[in-house]
């Protein structure tokens, strides 16, 4: 188990994201963190790294820039940021909690396998630091209303760290696309499954060369009530524990029989 519960007033918090150092969601998350503790550090990507997943930069050197006291940027992935923060920037006094986000867009269902926001929390978890990833859902073509995350984020963290969770587990939190006052509550649920659409946009660039752009079309129909997808699309905040041991234990015995 992680060393939980936490006394947040004495907690050293690392804030990171995948949308980059200048993202609005990072500002929201910094404000959330400062509601909880006076010891807040920021190490975030220099540029947007959405859908970077748990990638690590190994084929070139990384540049770490200090922007201000306790505020840094890295020209790499979210995973790079957490690794450098924990093992270099904060090596003399490691963080006791990592918050990642607030992502511009939800990370529900299969999104977790692509998300740089989730990956930053994964890296922290692998480094034995408890981590919470946060994402703000929004409707395409509409302005993003960050008020749900801004108003409820600190309360979610306060409640989450009152109980212990295993060292291989991170928390994935998603806020609905509703004003803060219209949020229907917080529910602890499993990840859902939604069909990733076949929206591959074929075009020709100005030089006459064809290209393909992967679209974002997805289906939300026929999702179970006890899933993050259902909760977020119905105005609630979803909290899902994500387990990093990807072994499917029930299949172990079946496979062993095949290899005797």
Which features characterize this protein?
Stationary-phase Survival Protein Sure Homolog, Chain: A, 25% helix, 9-stranded mixed sheet, 24% strand
Structure description:
A nine-stranded mixed beta sheet has the order 3-4-2-1-5-6-7-11-8, sandwiched between helices. It has a two-stranded antiparallel ribbon with strand order 9-10. It is built from six helices and eleven strands. Helix 1 packs parallel to helix 4 and helix 2 packs parallel to helix 3. The mean pLDDT is 93. A hairpin with a 2-residue loop joins strand 3 and strand 4. The protein has a single domain, classed as 3-Layer(aba) Sandwich (Stationary-phase Survival Protein Sure Homolog, Chain: A). With 260 residues, it is α/β, with parallel strands linked by helices. 25% of the residues lie in helices and 24% in strands. It is an enzyme of class 3 (hydrolase). It is found in: Cytoplasm.
């Amino acid at each position: 188990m992680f060393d939980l519960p936490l006394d947040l007033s004495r907690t050293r918090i690392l804030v990171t994201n995948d949308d980059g150092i200048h993202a609005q969601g990072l500002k929201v998350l910094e404000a959330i963190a400062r509601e909880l503790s006076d010891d807040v550090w920021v190490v975030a990507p220099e540029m947007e790294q959405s859908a970077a997943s748990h990638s690590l930069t190994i084929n070139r050197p990384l540049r770490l820039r200090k922007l201000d006291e306790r505020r840094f940027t890295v020209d790499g992935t979210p995973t790079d940021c957490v690794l450098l923060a924990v093992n270099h920037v904060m090596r003399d006094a490691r963080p006791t909690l990592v918050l990642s986000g607030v992502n511009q867009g939800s990370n529900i269902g299969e999104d977790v396998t692509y998300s740089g926001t989730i990956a930053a929390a994964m890296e922290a978890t692998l480094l034995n630091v408890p981590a919470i990833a946060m994402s703000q859902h929004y409707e395409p073509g509409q302005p993003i209303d960050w008020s749900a995350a801004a108003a409820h984020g600190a309360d979610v963290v306060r409640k989450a760290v009152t109980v212990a969770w295993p060292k291989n587990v991170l928390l994935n939190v998603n806020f609905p696309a509703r004003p803060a006052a219209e949020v229907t509550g917080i529910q602890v649920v499993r990840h859902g499954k939604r069909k990733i659409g076949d929206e591959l946009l074929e075009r020709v660039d100005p030089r006459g060369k064809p290209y393909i752009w992967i679209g974002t079309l997805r289906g939300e129909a026929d999702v179970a009530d006890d899933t993050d997808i259902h909760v977020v699309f119905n105005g609630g905040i979803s909290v899902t524990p994500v387990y990093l041991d990807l072994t499917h234990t029930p299949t172990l015995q079946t496979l062993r029989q095949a290899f005797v």
